[in-house]
Design goal:
This protein is an alpha/beta fold and 501 residues long. It folds into three domains: 5-101 and 165-428, Glycosidases (TIM Barrel, Alpha-Beta Barrel); 109-151, Alpha-Beta Complex (Oligo-1,6-glucosidase, domain 2), CATH 3.90.400; 442-499, Sandwich (Immunoglobulin-like). The chain is built from 14 helices and 18 strands. Strands 9-8-7-3-2-1-11-10 form an eight-stranded parallel sheet. Strands 12-13-14-18-16 form a five-stranded antiparallel sheet, covered by helices on one side. A three-stranded antiparallel sheet has the order 4-6-5, with no helix packed on it. A hairpin with a 2-residue loop joins strand 13 and strand 14. Helix 5 runs parallel beside helix 6 (221-233) and helix 11 (315-331) runs parallel beside helix 14. It is globular and about 75 Å long. The mean pLDDT is 97. The protein binds alpha-D-glucopyranose (GLC). Alpha-D-glucopyranose is lined by residues 60, 63, 100, 154, 190-191, 244, 301-302. Residues 13-376 form the Glycosyl hydrolase family 13 catalytic domain. Its EC number is 3.2.1.20. One of its GO terms (molecular function) is alpha-1,4-glucosidase activity.
């Protein structure tokens, strides 16, 4: 069987606003990404996923799209996008773009027409509300001038489309064609389980992401992805789609990943697992048992960075665990999604001043929740402030970087064998050599308490989540470890790749 490129791909998420700023306005842009393609190639990833760069009033960092077929001037032009795709391909990197089909911006021409009382059937307008809450906090309904309410599962600036209207289907097929015709290799589908809401919009008790809920995961959504799959199959070059599906079971996740639906879906259970061998093993077993094409992810632009999640009072522990988790993830069958900055070991920035915060979660929760700005702080490329090489000249970035970013910058880490950046490069290079030579299956080996050992043919991965050093399992050579080994002992918070002939 020919193995599709995405099955084992390493995809690097670029949160465009925070990756690299070429224009000098303090906000990352497409030209900034283009300049850093050699860095990404050198890192050893196979593809990049660009978060939304479309025209948007930025009520939710661009996840509120006002025009699905353009580029916001903040991020560049369509010509910049086209040259980015061309140059990425020349570097051997595929390009995924984010598609936001659950909602548009309130500035989208369709919603502006709806506000004028025209064609409200493309959104969800009602005379009375139900008890649904916005995911960001507060009610999911906002009243318009004539007294009707519209539904928004996220910010008021993000009205939900009515997917029961065929016009919405036709529009999105056309949007997908627009980007496919410009050479994109696939799509990341935002809130992929959200498009349909239960008929009659009944009240809910618990609105968290569940496989059975009037708010999320209605069965009709699968027909959308069947249509999209047919469209993708009609293009040459193995175009693909990965869904952002938040749910509470791997069986439910698997419903989206089918030969006639999405190619992949994010596996958030992996990212939600605490630092625990039992939790890790359960997610791995559940995933491999139910999802034909597995994916793994530790961090993204919506969650606390994993170095901080795994951290204890000692920040070094968080980093050691983050590196061990990475090595474990890269040994699993399937594809892995990395988030910009994790290769530098960036922590969550927890002490941003309130006046710097921009995430609607902070505002809609009335400051009770810090929001997601702490994982979106611009990347430090060089040692020197004010922007650590993020913006040219003396420009301040759109979110302030802490002083600790100097030590974590690319400039500081490049060439330092013990650095997290060089560790990522080495791990990705080893994985690239191994991936075609090892089976897509995994076998658990006996291991002491607190520790996991598994093998894939000649490769054995060992991770120590316990408090004591343990003996490595049988092996011929040590290929790589996430931290120093002590002779034949694997210290706590450390993982290793071992080879046996
Ligand atoms: C997804 C995005 C998130 C955004 C939300 C609404 O969860 O990843 O950043 O706020 O959708 O579009």
């Amino acid at each position: 069987m020919d193995i599709p490129w995405w099955r084992d791909a390493i995809v690097y998420e670029i949160y465009v606003r925070s990756f690299a700023d070429a224009s000098g306005d303090g906000v990352g842009d497409l030209a900034g990404v283009r300049e850093r393609l050699p860095y990404l190639r050198r890192l050893g990833v196979d593809a990049i996923w660009l978060t939304p760069f479309y025209p948007s009033p930025m009520a939710d960092g661009g996840y509120d799209v006002a025009n699905y077929r353009g580029v916001d001037p903040l991020f560049g032009t369509l010509a910049d996008f086209e040259s980015l795709v061309e140059q990425a391909h020349e570097h051997g990197l595929r390009v995924l773009v984010d598609i936001v089909p659950n909602h548009s911006s309130s500035e989208h021409p369709w919603f502006q027409a709806a506000l004028r009382g025209e064609r409200r059937d493309r959104y969800i307008f009602r005379d009375t509300t139900n008890n649904w809450q916005s995911t960001f906090g507060g009610p999911a309904w906002t009243k318009v001038a004539d007294g009707q309410y519209y539904l928004h599962l996220f910010a008021p600036g993000q009205p939900d489309f009515n997917w029961r209207n065929p016009e919405v289907h036709a529009e999105f097929l056309d949007i997908l064609r627009f980007w496919l015709d410009r050479g994109v290799d696939g799509f990341r589908i935002d809130v992929a389980m959200g498009l349909y809401k239960a008929e009659g919009l009944p009240d809910v008790g618990d609105q968290s992401f569940k496989s059975v809920s009037p708010v999320w995961g209605q069965p009709e959504v699968h027909n959308v992805y069947r249509d999209w799959r047919r469209l993708l199959n009609g293009y040459p070059g193995e175009r693909m789609a990965v869904g952002e599906v938040w749910t509470d079971s791997s069986e439910d996740l698997a419903l989206y990943v089918r030969p006639d639906e999405l190619h992949q879906s994010f596996n958030f259970a992996w990212l939600q697992a605490p630092w625990s061998p039992t939790a890790f093993k359960k997610v791995i077993d559940d995933t491999l048992a139910s999802v034909p094409f597995a994916t793994w992810v530790l961090s993204n632009h919506d969650v606390v960075r994993h170095r901080t999640r795994y951290g204890t009072a000692d920040p070094g522990t968080g980093l050691a665990r983050a590196r061990a988790a990475l090595l474990t993830m890269l040994a699993l069958p399937g594809s892995a999604y990395l988030y910009q900055g994790e290769e530098l070991g960036l922590p969550e920035v927890t002490d941003l001043p309130d006046e710097a915060r921009q995430d609607p979660v902070f505002f809609q929760s009335k400051g009770k929740l810090p929001g997601r700005d702490g994982c979106r702080v611009p990347i430090p490329w060089t040692v020197d402030p004010p922007s650590h090489g993020f913006s040219p000249g003396g420009v301040e970035p759109w979110l302030p970087q802490p002083a600790t970013f100097a030590e974590l910058s690319v400039e500081k880490q490049e060439g330092d064998a013990g650095s997290t950046l060089e560790f990522y490069r080495q791990a990705l290079a080893c994985r690239r050599d191994l991936v075609g030579t090892i089976p897509y299956t995994l076998e658990w080996l006996d291991s002491p308490e607190g520790v996991l050992f598994f093998s894939r043919g000649p490769l054995t991965c060992a991770i120590n989540c316990g408090l004591q050093p343990v003996h490595l399992p049988e092996h011929d050579t040590v290929l790589l470890s996430s931290g120093p080994l002590k002779g034949d002992l694997l210290p706590p918070d450390t993982a290793a790749w071992l080879m046996t002939s």
